[in-house]
Write a structure and sequence with these properties.
This protein is of the alpha+beta class. The chain has ten helices and 13 strands. It has a seven-stranded mixed beta sheet with strand order 8-10-7-11-9-12-13, with helices on both faces. The mean pLDDT is 93. Bound molecules: adenosine-5'-diphosphate and magnesium ion. The site of adenosine-5'-diphosphate (ADP) has 13 residues, from helix 1, strand 4 and strand 5.
């Protein structure tokens, strides 16, 4: 069934309920632009990410999962600023007008959009190779905004959740990794429960919105981990004009990661993999306890993995305190891929 652009918008993006009402959204889908009303004491936070078929997901992936990943990675950027989601826009490039695909795609978006009170307020549809661009808007208290700049010597470095699952998920989904051929699962066919776990880790990362909002006043800097802890922490230390020490023996790994990957590959995944969409943030020692309690109350795992130092380098040490050699494998779309 061929549907016109207008029928697609109406059916899958309006009638689907994705454009639900929300305070601050004065006008959503349907006119030439959406209209937003911001509270006078908040800043508008804006972030955009594009997911390309064949690069960020297999073209044949389940549409609901692609949708969830596309929105989740954007929400993760808002979390990394300690912003509260307000709404999002969606630019879709579609190879065909496929009713079943659109239906599942829109249902996939709806669950996450509702969970984070983040309605769809507009977008665009064009014809071409499958690509999904989402732009999220959020609001943030100017006093509590989380930036890459701000880390101080002695601050503890924390991460939320587990490290490495994103990169290990790529391997388990059979997607090529920039980590090279030695980066492989222990068994070519991991157990069903591991496969299911990694599928969820890859397509349904949990944006750490609540953690960042609740703990922002204890954090001096923060970023979301999309390119591996090493590369993303590097952004924090560069912006802050500091160095860092990472203690690889403290890295948190999921049971599935431990079951499916060698210790060395796990560490590669954590440091240089990507797609984890966890937060990396710094906390002065005097606030660590308060932050950890807040995280516990939210049932969100946080793990101290190092500290900010003088200098400008990141060094990695093992349990005995010996320094490990550093690789330059962080993901770069125009670099080493
Ligand atoms: P224009 O030609 O003025 O850009 P469009 O025909 O592209 O208008 O869009 C009409 C309305 O539908 C606008 O409000 C636009 O934001 C909305 N819209 C278009 N595509 C999408 C989409 N993929 N998701 C949500 N809203 C959309
Ligand atoms: Mg348009």
């Amino acid at each position: 069934m061929i549907q016109s652009e207008f029928e697609i918008i109406q059916r899958y993006f309006v009638d689907s309920g994705l454009g639900f009402a929300r305070t601050g959204v004065v006008l959503g889908i349907g006119d030439d632009a959406a209209l937003l009303q911001l509270p006078s004491n908040r800043l508008l936070a804006i972030s955009m990410d594009t997911l390309l078929a064949g690069v960020h997901f297999p073209a044949a992936a389940e549409p609901a999962l692609i949708a969830q990943r596309a929105l989740a990675v954007n929400l993760s950027d808002l979390a990394a600023m300690a912003a509260t989601p307000l709404c999002f826009t969606l630019s879709l490039v579609l190879p065909e007008s496929n009713a079943a695909w659109l239906q599942e795609f829109s249902e996939g978006l709806l669950g996450l959009a509702k969970k984070y009170a983040c309605p769809l307020v507009g977008g665009d549809i064009t014809h071409g190779e499958l690509s999904i661009t989402i732009q999220v808007q959020g609001t943030v208290d100017p006093e509590k905004v989380l930036r890459r700049v701000g880390a101080e010597v002695g601050d503890r470095i924390y991460v939320s959740g587990f490290l490495g699952d994103g990169a290990i998920a790529l391997a388990s989904l059979g997607i090529d990794s920039h980590l090279g051929t030695s980066f492989a699962l222990n068994e070519p066919q991991p157990s069903e429960s591991c496969t299911a776990y990694f599928k969820q880790a890859y397509y349904q990362p949990e944006p750490r919105i609540e953690l960042a909002r609740a703990c922002a006043s204890t954090m001096t800097s923060g970023i979301d981990i999309s390119d591996g802890l090493y590369g993303d922490l590097k952004h924090i230390v560069t912006a802050s004009g500091k160095g860092a020490r990472l203690r690889v023996n403290l890295f948190p790994y999921s049971d599935a990661a431990i079951a499916c990957m060698s210790a060395e590959n796990r560490q590669q995944a954590a440091l240089y993999g990507g797609d984890d969409y966890e937060l990396c943030f710094t906390v002065p020692p005097k606030y660590c306890q308060a932050m950890e309690q807040e995280a516990l109350a939210l049932n969100t795992r946080v793990t101290r993995v190092g500290e900010i130092t003088q200098g400008s380098e990141i060094i990695c040490i093992d349990a005995s305190g010996s320094e490990l050699p550093v690789s330059t494998k962080s993901y770069d779309h125009f670099g080493n891929h």
